[in-house]
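Table S2 (text version). Query chain:
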Amino acid sequence: MGRIQLKVTNVATPPIKWVPDEKQLPAYLLRVRSLLVKSSDRAAEKHKLADQYKPLYCQIVFAAAWQETCWRQFVKQGKNVTPMTSATGDLGLMQVNRNTWRAVYDLTGLSGDITYNGNSGSEILLYYLARHAIRKGEDKHEGGNLARGTYSAYNGGPRQLGRYRAAKPNSALRKVDDAF
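Corresponding C-alpha cell output:
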C-alpha cells in the first residue's frame, strides 16, 4: 500500500486522553462510532472499494475496534491516563502493531491520537479485505466469510486469512476468531 499520509479534518472525535466515566459513556460511544464511520468511509472512497462491500467493511471496522479495545484509545492506570498498549506492541483504538506498521504509520499518532489510530486501523482492515479476502475469494471457500477472513489477517497477518476455518485450529487463535 505504500506510505500513507493521513490528513483528516472535521471529525468529531473524543477529547484528547478521554477515559469516560459511566455518565459520559453514551456520548463517548456515539463520538467513537462517528469517528469509525468517517474513517471507514474515507478509506473506502480513497481506495475505491466497490459499493457492494462498503456496508460490510464498515461493520468490520466497528467489530475490529470493539474486539481490540471496546472502542477505547486510553485507559486509566492508577491516576495516569495512558494509551491502550498490548504486550505485543499494538497501540490504541485499533491496536495497530507498532512493529509491523512502523514504516507506514507514525507511532506517536497511533498511541496518542484516536482519529489517527482509527484511520490507520481502517486502512489496514481495507487492505486485508480488498487485497486478501476479496481477491482470494475467502467467501467462496467452505465455511468462508469475508469479515472473519479479514479480521484473521488483521490479527495475524495475510497468511492467517483462513485460519478460522482450519480443521485443527490453534485453540488460542480459535478463541480470538470466534469472539470476532
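Notes on Table S2: The first strand starts at residue 74 and ends at 77. The longest helix spans residues 25-46.
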